[in-house]
Amino acid sequence: MTRWSSDQLPNLAGKTAVITGANSGLGLETAQALGRAGAHVVLAVRNAAKGEQAVGSVPGSAEVRRLDLGDLASVREFADSWDGEISMLINNAGVMFPPEGLTRDGFEIQFGTNHLGHFALTNLLIDHVTDRVVTVSSSMHRSVKGIRWEDPNFTGAYDPQKAYGQSKLANLLFTLELQRRLSEAGSAVRATAAHPGYAATNLQSHAGNPLLRRLMAVGNLFAAQPAQVGALPTLFAATQDVPGASYVGPDGPFELRGSPTLVGRTQAASDPEAAQRLWTLSEHLTGITFPMAEKF
Predict the structure, then answer these.
(1) pLDDT in tens, 86-98
(2) Predicted structure pTM score
(3) What residues make up the domain containing 135?
């Protein structure tokens, strides 16, 4: 069987892709592949200087725009400045296992950045999107049984691994409910999700535990697949004819590495009632609603 690669991307000339966290790692690999396929790529990054260093490595047409997903004012500013169509909105940015901390708006930093920031961005930009919203999740969504509804911020009981798992579960529930709303609205836009397997990126270097950082650095050297391969599920979910709300990951053992394919998720990540409940909570926390909310 021929393994799918970025060489099989369609011609994306005339298409625009917005990729969060695209100055390094999976986001930059995704940007480079889409640029080679002809897309105009927008690197939406918190650190504009690092974005400017990275954008030169993106073939074809590319630009940098500042976006801090941990600051809803920055998310609104990014969205308010947008004009024109977005073929692919790729919610890629994320933080993993950081020391306990809060976003500018007072949310636990992983839930606030990985989920709420992308929730806000997607809802503010969805009227511009013409084809796909891809949200990058993780196999770590399997590490938690559900959302901590009464205390998503882990107040007084911070566990970085569980908080990360919750944020990745939220990514999948968000995708599920977004697709439902798009379908109900008669939109042709598809919401999909992807995970990279075990890919060597600098994401692991942000862990607050020094021992965990060292262990993950060793794993990156000897067990992980390259970031270029880790980006393939995202590219597949963004460009191939997959169903709405589908989830793409590697086809190898335990989904750690391999070629992109449709993969499963936990029962907690497939619960439509939990997805709707999370959406309502996210609207309450961010003050941002789906543009066609009156239809639901």
Answers:
(1) 999 999 999 999 9
(2) 0.92
(3) 7-197+229-285
